[in-house]
Amino acid sequence: MTASPVREPAPPPTGLASSGSSLRSKLPGLNSISLLLIWAAVIVLFGITQTSTFLTTETLKTLAADQAITAIMALALLLPLAAGAYDLSIGGVMGLAVVLVAYFQSHYHLGFVFAILLTLCAGLGIGAINAFVIVRLRVDSFIATLGMSSVLLAAVEWINGGQEIVTGISTKFTNLGSDQLLGFQLPFYYMLVIGGILWYVLEYRQAGRYMYAIGSNPDAARLAGVRTGRLTVTALLGSAFIASLAGVIFTAEIGSATNQAGPPYLLPAFAAAFLGATQFRAKVVNVPGTLIAVYALATGIKGLQLSGAAFWVNDLFNGLALIIAVAFAVRASRKRA
Amino acid sequence: MSSNSPVVLSIEGLSKTFTGQKALRSVDFQVHAGEIRALVGPNGSGKSTLVKILAGYHQPDEGAVATVDGQPFELGHADAAFAAGLRFVHQDLGLVPALGAMDNLALGRGYIRGRSGTISWRRERETGEELLASLGYDFDFRAPVSSLAASERTGIAIARALEGWRGHAKILVLDEPTASLPAAEVNRLFEVVRTVRDNGVAVIYVSHHFNEVFDISDTVTVLRDGAHVATLPTADVDEPRLVELTIGRKLAEPRDAQSATAIADAGTALLQLIGVGGRVVQHLDVEVGPGEIVGVAGVTGSGREEICGLVFGDHQRSGEVLIEGRSVPPERPDLSLRLGMAYVPPERAAKAALLDQTVRQNTTISWLKPFYGPRGLRRADERAETNIWLDRLEVVPRDSEALFQTLSGGNQQKIVLARALRIKPRVLVLDEPTQGVDVGAKAAIHDILRNAAAEGAGVLVASAESEELVQLCDRIIVMNQGRAGRECLAAEVSADELTEYTLRTLAADPA
């Protein structure tokens, strides 16, 4: 007997793209490392137009420090995104950590080390709740973490009655955020350390390999022996932990705690993670791509601001970057289908 | 009976060629009003092609003439088929699981609306209830269809196919309607099909199961190799004759099936299935010894396609699976692997492929431990071992960093095999191991499996292809309605005979 001559086409892989026609466009793609070239072009452009203000070490240092928090938040997203889950609550978790680490010091007069540890534990607790809802209750990660971010907004308001916390924060603590090393503020180095660890885990540990496998095809990963539930829990704990670290660093850097610190970082973080996913490795989120994306975007925004653009170019730029990055990812996966 | 009633569908000279391959060869086919016509034939006989041309999914070759009720009818157009009164219920039914029967019915034809465009729920309910009642159904009309019995879901799909067009629906085509139906619900479905026929509709019933053919059909048409073999009143044929028509040669004398058990007793079993059950499979006992390749044959719906997943732990199961006497917990692929069982799943794209990852990552995913050094996974070692497998399985291109999706089907399947063989399995469980693979790669994969067995592994292979099983296996178990039927030694059976065994029903088979 021969197999039926009529073979149904295999279903297209699920991804960012819905199944579509195999559109083979000749347009240039955001291929590997092209973001580096764009970044270089942006530097050259503003270097020529805004020589006196743009090409200064001052601009370099501000950029490096200003973007450290954004970069850490984007890094926080990488674990769940690698494992095919969304974590929209990282903005909320960061916001909670910003307030908690100050509140523990000013209200309970705890030592700053203890305050940091408690805050990180709270972040892990939120991650654990996310993981329970997503893995055990099987709520879609997008919905679960969207809901959680609203709950966290409420929690932040409730903690100090919506008041900014400015007093009672240890100067040793704020020094951790404002001190400089080799001309750069410490948060820049924290970001590099977190990025380095994450890169190692994603590229050189079994857990990272497993997360990418789940993100690629959860069923295949499970049948290849991956404990998909457990790995998803790990990823969500990781994102919550890193986001609460970002909150702690933010408070240390600013020296006070406002109740609206976290959520504005969510969108730039997604924009950088997705833009970074178009770099180095096909369609997969990765650490170097993400960091380059953060700084390429920030450089463009900085240059525009120095050229006299209004403050809102920040939001405009990040929003456009997110849409364009995902559009490129969709196009890439369509080509393959 | 049928021969007295008017011809409702007539087709003459229907051929279909797929890139040089003849799927249908000048088939003539007539169906009468108010009859149930069974359409049977082995895989590749052309029955699904015929159905797909009727439904307008494929275009026929030039020269086919078709009429419905004496009116010319253009084959190969979905709209024309619908207008002519042809209705189809496909295997997957196409229902929305979360919606109730009422909504699923309405989705087929549009909701009943009042003058302002508002949906008239009252009329909607009345119409639907009346329709389902006329088919003999009585269940909660608003319950999501996912909560209903499988036969009730099939009933809804049939009702939707016929709905609102009474008098218009002339021909109902059912494609393997019992494929996912528990045995107890089959009779329920048959009653519905008879009700439909008694309303004057011609029913074309496509099935692999000969017992169903004898239970339900008035006449039966046999296709083989794309050609029409015979159309007969079902009452005039018995099962051996029908099998003979389907296979295309005389029935062999029944063989002594007892000799088969001798092999299983020879060594202690590596893999043991004790009373394993799933959706279709019931109380299955199988043993696979070291160095033995055991095949699982059976038509679609026999349980053949379920066994491997049950053994490895892909789906929920009852009963026990033992490897060298140690119990394998259900639904824990990771523990199955650790106990030394490797699995090659069916549907490579859905269940095995990490499409956007490299060949290396696809090969090593199931066992990363040997690559751990003080600084984590050593890429160079991974690459070196992947290359060894690429050489051993002759994968082209020999590039461990190529993306998996850029490989051809045969090479992809070899990588999935490499993933399984790499863990040095005691037991290999494979479902359709040569799916979508060309002839050369197929032979290579068979060699690989024979080598694995020669080195002492126990191999369990399920396949829809009799030829493959006969070539590859030592012993073959024929699944029939969820149970192990006949068991035979591959050396003593031809592919045709094996196909014949899969088609024969349990009741008719003394083994």
Measure the end-to-end span of chain B: 36 Å
Provide the structure class of chain A: mainly alpha
Largest sheet of chain A: 2 strands, antiparallel
Mean pLDDT of chain B: 85
N-C termini distance of chain A: 31 Å
**Second CATH tier, the architecture of the largest domain in chain B:** 3-Layer(aba) Sandwich
- CATH class group of the largest domain in chain B: Alpha Beta
> Overall mean pLDDT score of chain A?
85
- Identify the strand order in the major beta sheet of chain A: 1-2
Query: Using DSSP, what is the number of strands of chain A?
Result: 2
Beta-strand percentage range of chain B = 15-25%
Q: Tell me the CATH superfamily of the largest domain in chain B.
A: P-loop containing nucleotide triphosphate hydrolases
- Principal-axes geometry of chain A comes out as globular
Choose one word for the global shape of chain B.
Answer: globular
Low-confidence stretches of chain A: 1-29
**Total strand count of chain B, please?**
22
Give the SSE layout.
The complex is a heterodimer of chains A (337) and B (511).
Chain A (H helix, E strand, L loop, with lengths): L33 H16 L1 H4 L2 H26 L7 H17 L5 H25 L4 H19 L11 H8 L1 E2 L2 E2 H19 L1 H11 L1 H6 L4 H27 L11 H12 L9 H20 L6 H24 L1
Antiparallel strand pairs in A: 1-2
Chain B lengths: L6 E12 L2 E12 L3 E5 L6 H9 L9 E4 L2 E2 L5 H7 L1 E4 L11 H9 L11 H14 L15 H13 L8 E5 L7 H16 L3 E5 L3 H7 L2 E6 L2 E7 L5 H9 L12 H7 L4 E7 L6 E5 L4 E5 L6 H9 L5 E6 L2 E2 L5 H6 L2 E4 L3 H4 L7 H6 L7 E2 L2 E2 L1 H14 L16 H14 L4 E5 L7 H16 L3 E5 L3 H7 L2 E6 L2 E7 L5 H9 L8
How would you characterize the overall build of this protein?
- The complex is a heterodimer of chains A (337) and B (511).
- Chain A has 337 residues and is mostly helical.
- Chain A has 14 helices and 2 strands, in the order αααααααββααααααα.
- Chain A has a two-stranded antiparallel ribbon.
- In chain A, α4 (90-106) packs across α11.
- The longest helix of chain A is centred in the C-terminal third of the chain and has 27 residues, at 228-254.
- Chain A is globular.
- The two termini of chain A are 31 Å apart.
- In chain A, 48% of the residues are buried.
- Chain B has 511 residues and is of the alpha/beta class.
- Chain B is 34% helix and 23% strand.
- In chain B, β7, α6 (183-198) and β8 form a beta-alpha-beta unit.
- Chain B starts with 6 loop residues before the first strand and ends in an 8-residue tail after the last helix.
- The chains are: A mainly alpha (337), B alpha/beta (511).
- The A-B interface holds A 1-7, 10-11, 13, 15, 200, 203-206, 209-210, 212-213, 216-217, 219-227, 282-284, 333, 336 and B 18, 21, 23, 42-44, 48-49, 52, 58, 312, 314, 333-334, 337-338, 343, 345, 347-357, 361, 365-369, 372, 375-377, 403, 405, 419, 436, 464-467, 495, 499.
